[in-house]
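can u pls check wat happens w/ pyridoxal-5'-phosphate
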Amino acid sequence: MDNKKILVTSPLLPELDDFIPYLKEIWDSKWLTNNGHFHQELEKALAAYLKVPYISLFTNGTLPLIAALQAERITGEVITTPYSFVATTHSLWWNGIKPVFVDIDPITCNLDPTKIEAAITSRTTAIMPVHVYGQPCDTEAIQEIADKYGLKVIYDAAHAFGVNVNGKSILEAGDMSTLSFHATKVYNTIEGGALVMKDEKTKKRIDYIKNFGFSGETTIVAPGINAKMDEVRAAYGLLNLKQVDEAIAWRKQVADQYREALRGVEGITFFEDIEGVDHNYAYFPIFVDKEKFGMSRDELYYKMQEKNVFGRRYFYPLISTFSTYKSLPSAAPSNLPVATQKADQVICLPMYKDLGSESVTSVINAIIR
Ligand SMILES: *Cc1c(COP(=O)(O)O)cnc(C)c1O
């Protein structure tokens, strides 16, 4: 009998002993926030690790979405996916923008580019796709549409830390990309996030916006917000960056073990690796086909819990079903058949560094038996 709960995730933590000298340095300097030296160091280290030209740190992964929309002066309508964490759409709402939901592709679970054009109106100003589970969007097709209609593209890349396609960072796609460094993500700074941009001018503007709009001691250039990352979390982030490769390698082994056991199980499907893509194994979603598996997703979900295996139904319910959004015309389930089906089929299995192979076996047994 397994009587230890296996949870969907567990945070990647640096060694406490390694963290103490960093804290000592912060205490000695008394420089706690406002672009301190750990903040500057982490921006440099992340730009190098992620292979991106410019990055600006944030205090979480939601504020960079809000700030990117502000910086690009996005208004009117924005096309987005309902199959994501709710912060994606909330960032539009906080900017007074009307979200327009477009259905997802059944293979990638990302915004379906073939359905975008039909949703464009004279008020559309941007597209906000999500690389859900770290699976790359069809960035070329999306850019082609954006160029044709003069739209901005802001990627919610909260799941896509370290994902490269043919050696190039996925974070370079579109006009800007956001990251989340929340405790539950592949790489975390407890709470934290970032915005990735292409040029120095945009970085400068974003750095002003995240600091109330201050461009100098007495000059305000924009109605900014306070979204700065502090020194304690920047230092923690530097330490965690040193072990993120090891964490991703561990996750890959877990994914391989799941795949080997579940391949060929009737009614269960999952993602395989894509050639040329460096995956980060942020999540391991399985999709349950009730007819073929002989049990609904929810039946399986609760049966697993009885065996102490706690997956999560990411992403269920769809964002478009929440009270704030459900009356939008684009939120109608008939407009979103693929997303609706995926949301009804998905369970994300436990996935984190140090998840032992015996625990992985327990998860597999809770599904198969
Ligand atoms: C986690 C997440 C966010 C928000 O990040 P926080 O750091 O929790 O604010 C935004 N979008 C997606 C898709 C996420 O998964």
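The longest strand covers residues 54-58.
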